[in-house]
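[agent] plan:
  1. take the single chain provided in the ticket
  2. run structure prediction with default settings
  3. attach C-alpha cells to the ticket
  4. add a short note for the reviewer (M.T.)
[agent] executing step 1
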Amino acid sequence: MSFARKHYLQLLLLLTPFLLLAFAVFYGLYLVERRDLHASISAQHHTSLLRSEQTLRTILLNTEKDIDYLANLSSAKAWSHSPSESVRQTLAEDFINFMRRYPDYDQIRYLNHAGQETVRIDNLQGAATAVSQADLQDKSRRYYWHFIRALPPGGVYASPLDLNVENGVISQPLKPMLRIAKAIYVEGRFQGAIILNLQGQRLLSQLIAENTDQQAFWLVNEKGFWMQGPSPDLEWTFMWPDKQHINLLSEYPELANAFDANTTTTVETGAGLFTLATLSDLQPPVNGKPRHWKIIAFTAAAYFDATLKSYVYNLLQAFAAVAVLIVITCTLIIKKDKSLDWARQQSIRSESQFRSLLESAPDAIITLDESRVVRMANSMALATTGQALSALMDHPIERIFPPDQMPALQRAIAEVGSNPDHIVTLETELLMNDGSRIPVEARISPAGGEQGLVTCILRDITQRKAHDAKVQSLNHSLQKRSRDLESSNAELEAFSYSVSHDLRAPLRALDGFSKTLLEEYGEQLDERGQHRLQRIRAAAQKMGVLIDDMLNLSRVSRTEVQRSSVDISAMANHIVQDLQQRSPKTNATIQVQPGMQGEADPSLLRIALMNLLENAWKFTGKTEAPSIEIKQIHSDDEQSAVYCVSDNGAGFNMEYQKKLFTAFQRLHDARDYPGTGIGLATVKRVISKHGGRIWAKGEEGHGASFHFTLGESV
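[agent] step 2 finished; step 3 output follows
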C-alpha cells in the first residue's frame, strides 16, 4: 500500500507543474482575448460618445443662435418699447413664420416683466398655432422664471432638460423639453424674456440612433437622473416625488467615482462595461454649481459572455486535451522507469518531440541577430536554401540572398528593428548552392526575447508564380477566343440574313401567285376556293412576320449593350405617335410621365418599349375607353429605377405568367389578338442584357402592367 502511495505521490508531483503551467497559458490566452474585446468595445464607446457629444453641442449652439435671432426681430423690439395689439399680432406672425421654418421647437413665448405670457405659439402636430389671450398663462411661479429674471442684459438661460408641464400638470404623452430664454432689457430696465421650447426628443433621438445590440446609450443630468435610460420606468424619475430615489447611482453605486470625474472614464462592473463622458458648459450654473449632462455608453456583461463563450469552449477543449496528454505522459513515465536517468531521457525525448513539431512547420524559419547573422534555422530552412546546418548557422544572410536583393532586405530588417510592433512582408529571391534562384515571400517580424533578434519566415512561391503566369496565359487565350467568338457571331448574323432571304423569296412568290389567282381567276372560283387562297396569303404573310421577329430576337441576343443617357419619356412619346399613325385610337387616354431618364442602349431600349406599347395598343383594341400609362415608380425592393407600362385591356390569368416571356407562348386566341408570340421574349432578352429584371401583373378583363429595371450602369 505504501509502495502504491509513493507512486501516486510521484505522479502528483510530476503532474502539478505541467497542469498549472498549461492552465496559466490557457487562462492567459483567455485574459488576452477578453482584454482585446474590452479594448475594442471601449474604443467604440469613445467614438460614439464623441460623435453624440458633438451633435448635442451643435443643436444647443444652434438653439442659442435662434433665440438671438428672435430677440432681434423688429417686432420683438417694438413690443418691448411700446406694446400694442397690432404689434403683438405682428410679433405672433413672426413667431409663427419662424416655427414653420424650424418645426423642432414646441413653443415660442414672450413673457413680460411679471412672468405673464403675452404671446405664445404652440406646435400642434406640425402646425404653428397662436394661443388665444384667454389661454395665456402666468409662468412667474415656474422654477426657471427665477433664473431668467436674474439674467443680465443679453443673457441667455438654458433650463434643465425635463418634462413639459401645463397648468401644473405633466403633459401626456410625456414631452421632454429644454427651454432657452433670452432676457429683454430696454434702457437698462427688464421688460421680459423670449423663451424657446426645444423638443427634447430631438436631443434624445441622437442617442437612440447609436443604440445597437452591442451597446446602449443613456443621458443623465448632473444629479444622476436618467433622461434617456435602460427603460421608460427609470426615466424622468425626478419629476415625480415618489420616484426621486431612483437614479443612476442608486442602481449602479460603483459608478460614483466615474460620475464625479470631469473626463471621459471607462468602468467595468459586474453589470458590464460603462463609458461616461461629460457634456458641460450648460449655462447658467445653478446655485453657483456648473450644470452638466453625462452621456453613458453601456455594454452588458452578457454580451461579453456570449461573445467569449465559443472561445472559452475551444480553450476548455484544448486544455482538456493537453491535460489528458500530460496525465498519460506522466503516468507512462512513472510506470516505465522510476530512475532519474530514465526521467532525464524522457525529458530529452519530449524536447525532441517538441522540436519535431516545430520542425514540421511548412515554411523556412530563421532567426537573425542585429548583425544579420543566422542564430537559428529549422530543417525547412535548410531544405529550402540547400545549405548544410554548419554552413548556415553563425553566418551572415548574404550567403543565401543574392547581392541585388540585399538592399530591400536590409531596409525591411531595419524597419522591423526600429519598430517592435511592425511586420514587413516582401517578395525576394533565395540563392541556392548551385547558383540558381528561387522566388520566396519573406515575412520579417521581431523575434521577442533578446533585443535585436528578428524572425524571417520564408515561403517558396515558385508554384504561385507559375500559377500567375498560367493565369496570364489563360487570359490571353480567353481574349483570343473572345475575338474568335465575335467573328463567329458576325458570320452567324450573315448566315441568318442569307437564310431569311432564301425563306422570304418562296414566301413572296406564294403570296404573289395567290394574289394573282384571286385577282385574275377569282370570279371562276367559288367562295370556298377564294377563302382558301386568302388563307394561303395570310399564312405566307404571317410566316414573313415570324421570320422578321425571330431575326430581331437573334439580333438582340448578339448585340453588345452600349449604354448612354436616354430620355425615356421622349422615346415613349415618339413610339405612341407612330402607333397613332398606324392604328389611330381617337378615344384612347395615353399618359407618359415626363422627365423619365435612364442609362441604357437606346436602340435596344426602343425595341423593348415598342413591343410593350404595341402589346398595350393591341390588347386594348376591344376596350371601350382604352387607357395606357408609361411611368417610373419607386420600389424598396429594387436598387435601380423601376419603369412600368400598364393598360386596361384584355389582361391575363396570373397562373400563366411564367409563359409570358417564352417565345411562341400565347395566352390569347390568335383570331382575337394576332401576333407571333415573340415580342415579350424579345423584351425580356433586352432587359436581361442590361442586367435588369422584368415582371408582369394582370387580371383577365382588367388590364395588365409590365414592370422592368435596367440594371446598374457600370
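[agent] step 4 note for reviewer: The longest helix spans residues 2-71.
[agent] ticket updated
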